[in-house]
Amino acid sequence: MTDVDNSGLLAENDVPRHIAIIMDGNGRWAQKRYLPRAFGHRAGVKTVRKIVEHCAKHGVEVLTLFAFSSENWRRPKDEVSLLMTLFGETLQREINTLDKNGIRLRFIGDRSAFPTVLQNKMQEGEAQTKDNKALTLVIAANYGGHWDICTAFQKIIDKMSTGELGQQAISPQLIKDHLSTSDLPDPDLFIRTGGEERVSNFLLWQLAYTEFYFTPTLWPDFDESSLDDAIASFKSRQRRFGHTSDQIINKTASF
Ligand code: IPE
Ligand code: IPE
Ligand code: MG
């Protein structure tokens, strides 16, 4: 639970434990420059590197980045295949640096739809970095909140059919325990770049009490100071989780 100072605001040093980002606006960034959308996606990868490093420096525990949604297959074939290539290349190129910097890499989403070579790279990347402690970088790839919840229900139903779980076992905690993020804290801060103010089937269950931050900045233009602005906004908010403001200020809130 987040520490709260006497003013009822989050303590100055309280950086969000988990930041989840919808990295949106790559295509528009390129189009503004009369460039093909691919240039925007390539520029977006550079931003990923900056933001990962900055989060690690700030002591953020988990950074989840929405890289490809379960709906993004609807894009033109050329764009989908460019995104797959870029994903594979980036993974290959960055894995050793991530490892050297103590970053633990994880993927969430239905990876069975990806080419086998890519699935293998994802698995190798996770294995190579599994004991790292600095920052957990979660890449949501072919991810959808609906998929996550359906998969959790499938796992629960399987356990019910073998008798491992009874029907009365259903609870918010049980559902959380079967999501792809079961071992991670829920996001404290959600950021969406690119100006749209929607969730687009990201971490639906996990965002129940997350603070939302929307910025018109396009993802390739988002930088360390943009992230600092988002964190500053987060720090200025009072998280009540259903309590009253007085309960938070007087520290009588029980969580
Ligand atoms: C986000 O940028 C990247 C992915 C969805 C892979 P977009 O490609 O959605 O960029 P816009 O929204 O078209 O500008
Ligand atoms: C959400 O962005 C998915 C990712 C950033 C990977 P989109 O650009 O696909 O979202 P919509 O379609 O505008 O809602
Ligand atoms: Mg978009």
Write the layout of secondary structure elements.
Layout: E1 18-22, H1 26-32, H2 37-58, E2 62-69, H3 77-100, E3 103-108, H4 116-129, E4 135-143, H5 145-161, H6 172-177, E5 189-192, E6 211-214, H7 224-235, H8 245-249
Parallel strand pairs: 1-2, 1-5, 2-4, 3-4, 5-6
Helix pairs in contact: 1-2, 2-3, 3-4
Bound molecules: 3-methylbut-3-enyl trihydrogen diphosphate (2 copies) and magnesium ion.
Essential attributes:
8 helices, 6-stranded parallel sheet, binds 3-methylbut-3-enyl trihydrogen diphosphate, binds magnesium ion, disordered N terminus, single chain, alpha/beta, 255 residues, Undecaprenyl pyrophosphate synthetase, 6 strands
Structure write-up:
It is a single chain. This protein has a six-stranded parallel sheet with strand order 3-4-2-1-5-6, sandwiched between helices. The chain is 42% helix and 14% strand. The longest helix has 24 residues, at 77-100. By secondary structure, it is an alpha/beta fold. The structure holds 3-methylbut-3-enyl trihydrogen diphosphate (2 copies) and magnesium ion (MG). The site of one 3-methylbut-3-enyl trihydrogen diphosphate has 11 residues, from strand 2.
